[in-house]
Design brief:
The protein is an alpha/beta fold. About 55% of the residues lie in helices and about 10% in strands.
């Protein structure tokens, strides 16, 4: 039940001749301080209607608004502050969570519509660095949020598996590589070869020509070149999968750049048919002056197609195959101009679905305030960060709870979860500095803190011998500490809605932190296991908290150990 809506209806009963229900709903506010009530209605907008001072209007209205869900009304100046009936609300909210468990907060906004999400997209033969973390975990969390509000997300790993770098890699492998080394450590060896190629090419420019020649062979279907390319791709994917498995992320499609090789000529023909292509210094471009954008380069003077051609082909393919209601691209904000051009060209092609394409940009991960370097093969490897985080989590578990069963498994859940949560608690567009010591802390606004809080709540339920619950009329609470928790649980569907509307996983992460903090305050001040008439209700509230913390973390892609 939406209690905000019930309050709006009570106000509407008095104002139906002046404001509609939706207008009233939009005016309702959440007071900054708990002592000012649970919901507030400002009377400013009524001043012109009634030709009275807003404070006078508030006083008159406050005396007449009634509802079983409102326990009291307090008028402060132009604000009417409503205090909800704590027992009625707490009972209903706790029972809703008990009934729905992880389904609590689900919405039907999406009506099952397909949403392809272009995410992660590492380059073949190169390691997954910390630079790939954001696209991967933001994309995964958005997929879970979209599913929560009724869409069908389609996770697409648009691999960087084509381009002149493969000609260079083939050249390097044939000159300095061997099969055994690639099979034993694929990414490490392929990166070594790639870096060696560039080092050698500084002294021997003819290597660049060899690299271009091998790429032409690959494009023309040379059997040896194609076999090597496939092998490099397969070996790289095996290594990527190890990281994705640890992150608990899977994909519905690995169609990368190479998949669209045979689809780009159709794009060029389509642009030509619409008379959008112009030639500038031998290159084919689409003029986008009317959108205040630079021209989009479609085909270079040597006939080679570019990223834009490929992304146009991908957009058309995804629309044809998924008939999407939205299409998301979780790509760094430095690519914003590219996606503006993509949408503009699709509009010029008269595709009305162009407005359903959304670029989801994000900020950088920095180290000591500086962008992480990828030059000369010096990358911060994602797998190494996950290893270090897990090792630090294990050390803290050894210190705090050395007899914990499955310590290594829990340390993995905590360490990996810490890295993921730290990324997602930051507003998507913000840059943030990464320091692993701060990330894997059991105190503060961290993933381990939220996991540990839930594990603590689970231990209370175990002490009480409570494994499952059914709804009950007895689950009513009215103390202030319980009420703060109840309000967060009640607001959860709206939290999910806001996370979806803003494509912002940090809204879920912040809810998890706030719920964990509010529960810990409740637990510090309320004797949960004391034998008295409210014991069952308190335990039911603890049960509800474990369910929603687990769901918050699930949406973010973080696992929840029951013991820590």
């Amino acid at each position: 039940m939406d209690y905000r809506q019930l309050v709006a209806e009570a106000i509407h009963n008095e104002l139906k001749d002046h404001l509609d229900l939706n207008e009233i709903n939009n005016l309702l506010e959440k007071p900054k301080h708990a002592e000012h009530g649970d919901i507030a209605f400002p009377a400013f907008q009524l001043a012109k209607l009634f030709r009275k001072n807003p404070a006078q209007i508030a006083q008159e209205l406050g005396d007449s608004i009634t509802s079983p869900i409102i326990s009291s009304v307090q008028v402060i100046g132009p604000y009417i502050n409503f205090y909800l009936n704590k027992k009625s609300v707490s009972q209903a909210v706790i029972n809703d969570v008990i009934k729905e468990k992880g389904h609590y907060g689900e919405l039907s906004i999406g009506n099952g519509g397909n949403v392809p999400i272009d995410m992660s997209s590492p380059n073949i033969a190169k390691p997954m660095s910390m630079g790939h973390l954001r696209s991967t975990v933001i994309g995964n969390a958005l997929s879970n949020i979209l599913a929560k509000v009724g869409f069908s997300p389609i996770r697409i790993n648009h691999l960087g598996d084509w381009g002149t770098q493969f000609g260079k890699l083939i050249t390097a492998y044939k000159k300095w590589g061997n099969e055994e080394d690639v099979r034993s450590e694929p990414i490490k060896e392929l990166l070594r070869l790639y870096v060696k190629f560039h080092d050698e090419a500084e002294n021997d420019p003819s290597l660049e020509d060899e690299g271009r020649a091998w790429f032409r062979e690959l494009e023309s279907g040379n059997e040896e070149a194609v076999e090597l390319w496939k092998w490099f791709r397969d070996e790289s994917l095996k290594e990527f999968e190890k990281v994705y498995k640890r992150l608990n992320i899977s994909f519905d499609s690995y169609n990368g750049e190479a998949f669209y090789n045979d689809k780009m000529s159709d794009v060029v023909s389509l642009l030509d048919e619409h008379k959008l292509l112009t030639v500038d210094q031998g290159a084919h471009i689409v003029n986008l002056d009317k959108y205040d954008l630079n021209p989009a380069l479609i085909k270079k003077s040597d006939g080679a197609t570019l990223y834009m051609t490929r992304d146009l082909a991908a957009a058309l393919y995804r629309k044809d195959n998924y008939d999407f209601s939205q299409s998301l691209y979780v790509v760094g904000q430095e690519q914003s101009n590219h996606f503006k051009q993509l949408k503009a060209i699709l509009k010029e092609l008269d595709f009305d679905w162009a407005d359903s394409i959304h670029h989801i940009p994000f900020g950088l991960i920095t180290k000591d305030g500086k962008k992480l370097s990828t030059r000369k093969g010096k990358v911060v490897l994602l797998e190494e960060v996950l290893n270090e985080a897990t090792a630090q989590a294990l050390q803290q578990i050894e210190d705090k709870n050395p007899n914990l069963p499955d310590k290594e498994k829990v340390a993995e859940q905590v360490g990996v979860g810490a890295v993921v949560f730290h990324d997602l608690k930051n507003d998507r567009l913000n840059n943030f500095d990464f320091t692993i010591e701060e990330v894997v802390q059991f105190e503060g606004e961290t993933g381990p803190y939220v996991q540990y809080t839930r594990a603590r709540a689970m231990s209370i339920l175990r002490k009480a011998g409570l494994e499952s619950l059914s709804p009950s009329d007895a689950f009513a609470l009215s103390d202030d500490y319980s009420w703060e928790v109840i309000k967060l649980l009640h607001d959860y569907p709206d939290t999910v809605r806001r996370a979806y509307e803003n494509y912002e996983p940090s809204i879920i992460a912040k809810h998890a932190i706030q719920l964990a903090q509010t529960f810990n305050k409740f637990y510090a001040n309320v004797r949960v296991l004391d034998e008295d008439p409210e014991k069952d209700a308190r335990l039911a509230l603890v049960f509800a908290i474990t369910e929603i913390l687990k769901e918050d973390l699930r949406i973010l892609g973080v696992e929840t150990p029951d013991e820590m």
